[in-house]
C-alpha cells in the first residue's frame, strides 16, 4: 500500500505465535488508523535462513535473515520488533538500541528487574522509542475505566481487586518449560505482571506489596522420561498499597481450572464502582451511587463508538473488538509515539516497572514481609 | 506481500463503512489464512474520480476510478466487490457477472426477491462464484452449534427462538432514509434477514411462515423541515415451520431501546439445548440432558482453538474474536470457493433465498395468513 | 398465635403439593405481614377421612373431613381454599360461593372460559372475595416494573416479549396426565397463562391475538402398557396487540430442555427498557436512555427494601426472596382484600380473563387468523 | 398446631430484626420439615415488660418478660434463643447453659475468642446443644459444593478465593455504631467471619493466615454533633493455608459500593472448579475438565429437588429458595441435633473457631506476619 507518508521499516525477530500476532497488528493498525507512517515489513529474522525465508513468504516481509544481528545492523530498518524467547530480549534490545533503532519488545522485558532497568536506561540514554506488549491496557474499556476514575465518577477510590487466572498449566503432566525456570518464571511473572500493570494503569503507583507465592505442581515431566523439580509459583497473590491511599489485592494463577482469560478487576469508590472481566472484554459494569433509589444497579456498558478508538474498527456499538484488535491499537499508539505525537504508551521504563512489581511480590512472599517499592534499585536515568 | 501464489485482483465499488470493512477483511484474511491466492487490491471506484483517488490512497488500492463500469470492464480484475448503496446492487452485479467476474455483494442482494433471483440465475448461468455478506454465520460458535445439531448432540430438534434486535431506529427524530423505503426496507429486511439466515443455517429449510409486521414510528423528519410518512416495519415477527418438523419463531426490531446486537438464538432438542447471544458472541451455552442428575446446567463454552478457525487468529482460548475477524473468515471462505476448494459459503442463491424469506414474512403479515415458501416464484436455473 | 384480631378460618380442599404450599403461605403471611385477621387453619378435606386426618396432623389443621361438601357447608369456615385437581374447581367453587364463602382457587380457575365466566359471575353476584393463584405477579420486581412503566420511566411502551418455558414435559416417555387432556390442557394453558397474565399485568389489556400451537410429542405412555395420542400443544406462541397500541409476543413451552423457570419478559419503550428472568427473580434489568453517553447500559437492580414488601421479609437488600415468599405475598394481599383494604389482587374475574386469553390463542392457532378478544363471550355481570 | 410430638419450648431474648427472622425460621421449619418436636413459642423477653408484651403479640409467643434472667430461669423453657446485642451474648448464654438450656445464639458468639471459648467449653461441660447462626452454610448449593469436593469431583483441591462484600458502611456520614467498637468490630468480624466460615466449610481447617486490615473511613458521626475516630477495619483480606495443602484468600469489605451480598467463592481443583455468588445463591457453576473437548465450560446448576432439602420447600427446580428459607433449614438442623438425630450443624465450638480465625487475621494484619492457628489458646475441653 504505497502512500506519500514517510516509511517506517520494521525488522521482526522471531516468527512464532507472537511474531504472527505482531504482523497482524501492524497490518491492521495500518488499515484502521491514519498512521503518521507507511509501515513496511522490511526484514524478518529467525534461527536460520530457511525458517526466516519461509516466514518472509508467509508473513509478507520483503527480506529475511538467519542472523538477527544483521537485521539489527541494517541501516534501512527503523524499528526492531523482538518476539524471540525471553532469554534473548536483553541482548537483542541492547544491540538494537545501540544501533539507534526504536525497539518493540514482547513482555517480559527481562525476567530480572536489573536487566529491565538496564534496557530502559539504555533506551532513554539513546533517545529511541520503546514499547513492551501490554495489549490488555489498549482496550477502550480500560481507557473508559481510567477516564471515569480520574474524572471522579467513582469519587475517592478506596479498594481494588485484580485477577489474572488461566488454566494452561493446570495439567500435572504438562512439561517443564522456560516458564518454570526459577530465574523469572512463574504465574506471577507471566500473568501477575498483567494484573499488576492493570492495577497501576487504573489506580496509579503501588507503594508497598505483601506477596504470597505457592508452588502447587512441584515437578513436571522433563522431556527425557523423568520429572524435573519446579520451584516457581503456580499461584501468586498480593496485598497492595497505592500511593493514592487506596488498598487492594491481586491474584495470578495459571492452574485455575476452567479459566481461560480471567483478567478481571473491581474498583470501589465512594460514589460508585467498576467491575470488568476480560472474558467479556467489550463490557464494563458501572455502579453509580447517584442513581435514583430503587433504580440502582451495576449497568453493563457495551463498547461502542463512544469509546475511542472503537469507532475506527466499527461504526456500530455492540459489534465487539477482538484480541487482535487490541494488538492493533497497541501498535498504533506506539507508532504515534515514534512520530512524537504522544507519549510512549508502555515503554521500557514501564516494562521495567512491571518487573520491579513482580520482583517485589516474589521477594515479599519469600520474606513474608511487606516490601516497599522504594527498596528497589532506583531507576537512574543517564 | 508478493508471493508465488496466483493473484486475485479485487475491484471494490463503494468506499463507505462497509467498503472499509471489506478491505480490513481482505487484508486480515490474507494474513490469517493460507489462501490459495495472493489478494491484490487493484482498483477502487466511487462516485467521482476525486473520491475514488482518496479512497485508493486511504485503503491501499493501486488504481481508482470515478466510473464503476470501467472497473467492471477492466480485464485485469477478478472479483468485483459491491458495497455501493442497495439500489445499485442489481445493476452492478449483473454487469460484473456479464463480464465474467466473481461477485461479492453486501447484503441485501436486492430488496425484491425477483431481482435477487435474476442475479442468482445470472451468476449460475455464467458460472462465476458469488458471495453475499452474512458474516454472523462465519462465527466459529455458529459452526459449533451446527455441528452439534447435525451430529445429534441435542437429539431431535424441536423448537427454535431467534432474534435480531438493535435500537438504531429508536429515536422518533431519526431521519427518513433509504431503509424506510417501502420497496425493501424495514426491520425485517435489515435485521430479520439475519435472524432468518441464522434459523436456516442451524435448522435447515423453512417451509411456512406466519408473519407480523408493525410500524411504530409512523413518520420521520424528511430533511426539509417536514415529516415523511413511514410504512415499513419497525418490528417484525414470524412463526416458523421447518422442513425437519421443528417449529420456531424469530423477531426483528430496530427500535429495541438499549439493544446493540441482540442477534440471539435458542435451540431446544430432545437431548439438549443451545443458547447464544451475539452480544457475547465468543460464547455458546449448551445444556446436556445426559449430564449427571444434580449436576446439569447450561454450560458456557468459550471460543478457542477447538473451534476452527479460531486457532488461526489466536492460539489460546478465551481471547476472543472481534466483528472484523468474522468478516475475515467470510472472505477467506469465499476465496476458497473461488479456488474450487469448497462450496460458496453464502452465494447469490442463498442471498435470494433470504429475500424470499423476508418477502414471505412481509406478505404473510399483510395477509394475516401462513405463507408457504413454495408459493414463491420457483428458482429456475437455466 | 392467639391475637385480638378477628379470626379468618380457612377450609382447605386438597393436600398435595399446592395444598402444602398454601399452608406455608398462610403461615408466612401471618408472620411477615400485619394482617387484618388472625388466620385459623380450621379444616382440611381430602378424598377420604384417613387422608384428611393425616393431612390435618401434618399441616396443622384443627379438623379434617373426607367430604369437601361438609367443609363447604361448615358455617364456621370463612374462606374455602381449593387446591384439588382442576376438574373439580368449578363445582367446588360454585358450592362455596353459594354458601357465602370467600374462595381462593389454584389456577386455572377452569379450563373452559365459559366455566370460568360462570364462576366469576357467581362470585360477583354473591359479593364474596375471590383469588386465583398467580404468584409470579406478586414479586416486588414485577411491581417495580409496573410502577416504572406506568410512571413513564420507559417513555411510550412499544414492544414486548414474554416467555414461560420449562422442560418437565420434555421426556417422550413421560406419562399421559390430565394436563394432556384436550379440554383445557397444554403448554399454553399451563404456562402460557402465566406469560399472558404477566403481559397484561405490565402493559394492560390485549385486544387481539394471533396464536400458534404445536404438538411435538404426539403420544405418551397411557400407564397400561400402550400409548395414548396427545392433541394438546407442547409449544404455543402468540403475537399480541395491546389496547395501548403496543405490540408483542409470548411463547409457552413445557419441552424447552434445560429450562426450569424461564418466565421472562422484555419491555421496550421510547426512553428505556426492562429485562427480567424468573430464573433470577430478585433482579430487574433497566436501560435508561437518559444516562450519559458512553455510560449507558442495562443495569441490574437487586431486590431490596426499596421494593415493598421486600423489607418485611428482610431489612437488607440482595438477600433474596424465594418462591414461597411470593406465595405469602399473594395470600397477604388476598386477605387485605377480604378485609376491604384493597382490591382483589387477582380475583375470579382476572382468572376468567386469563382463560379467555388462552382460549383465544388456541382458537387463533386453529383458525390461523387473528382473534379479537371482543369475539369472546362478553362477561355479563348480573 | 398441636401434635403428638414432644414439645420444644422456645424462649427468645431480643425482638429486633434477627428476633423476627428467628421466629419466621421456627415457623417455617415446623411447616416444611418433619421435626422431632412440636415447637412452642413459649416466652419472649425484651428490655422491659411493655416491649416484651408487644413482641409476644406480634410474634406469637404465649408469654413475655421484661427480664431475660427470669426467662432463662423458667423450667418450662427448653431452648434459649439469643438475638440480643452482641455485648450480652456471653452473659446470657452462660446463664442459660448453667440452667441446662440448649442455646441458640446469633453470631458472633462473642467478639473475643477467649469469651467464645469459655462459652463453648461451658456448653460442652454441661452437655447442652448449641447453635450459632451461620445461615449461608445451610444453602443446598453449599451442601452440593461440599459433596462434590469431598467426593473428588474436582480432583485435588488447589486454590480458593472467597469474598464477602457489601456496601452498608460505604457512606462516610454513616454513624458510629457498636460495629465500630475496637473490641470485636470491623468488616472482618462482621463479614469476614462468614467468608472464613465458608472457606473451612468447603475446604476444611485453615492452618495459617496472613492478614491485611484497612481502615478507610477513619471517623464517623458520634451522634452528638461531632465525629468519633474509627479504628476497626473497613476492608480486610487474608492469605490462607489449609491443612489439606490447598491455599487461598478471602476478602471482607463493608464499603464495596454497589455490592449488596457478594458472598462469593471460587474453588479450583485438578479436575474441575466451582464458582458461586450469594447474589444468585440458587446457582452453582461447575467446570468439569472431563467434559468433551470443545464442549467444556462452566455450567450453571440451578437449585432443585436433587439438592436436599430444596424439595421440601418446592417440588420443582428453578423456583428458588429465599434468605428466610435458609434460616428455616438452619433451625431445622439444630432441632434435629437437639433430638440427637445428627451433629450440631454449627455449635458453639464452631462459633469459637470462627472468632479464632477472625482474631488470627486481625493479629496477623497488625504484626504483618503469618499467624498459625495453633498459636491460639488451645481449646481445653473439661
UniProtKB/TrEMBL annotation, chains A, B, C, D:
Q: Which positions fall inside the GFO/IDH/MocA-like oxidoreductase domain?
A: 142-274
Q: Which Pfam families match?
A: GFO_IDH_MocA (PF01408), GFO_IDH_MocA_C3 (PF22725)
List each copy of the Gfo/Idh/MocA-like oxidoreductase N-terminal domain by range.
8-134
Single GO MF descriptor = oxidoreductase activity
Tell me the keywords, alphabetical order: Oxidoreductase
For the keyword Transit peptide, the answer is no
PANTHER family named among the record's database cross-references: BCDNA.GH03377
- Identification of the protein by name: Gfo/Idh/MocA family oxidoreductase
- Organism of provenance: Devosia nanyangense
- List the taxonomic lineage: Bacteria, Pseudomonadati, Pseudomonadota, Alphaproteobacteria, Hyphomicrobiales
